[in-house]
Amino acid sequence: MTTDAHTPHILIVEDEPKLAAVLEGYLHLDGFTTTVIADGRAVMPFIRATPPSLMLLDLMLPGRNGMDICRELRQFSALPMIILTARIDEIDRLLGLEVGADDYVCKPFSPREVVARVKTILRRASPVSNLAADAGAAVASGSALKTSNGLEVDEQFHLALLDGKELKLTPLELRLLALLMKTPGRIFPRNYLLSHLYEDHRIVTDRTVDSHIKNLRKKLQQVRPDSEPIVSVYGVGYRLEL
Question: Rounded to two decimals, what is the model's pTM?
Answer without folding.
Answer: 0.63
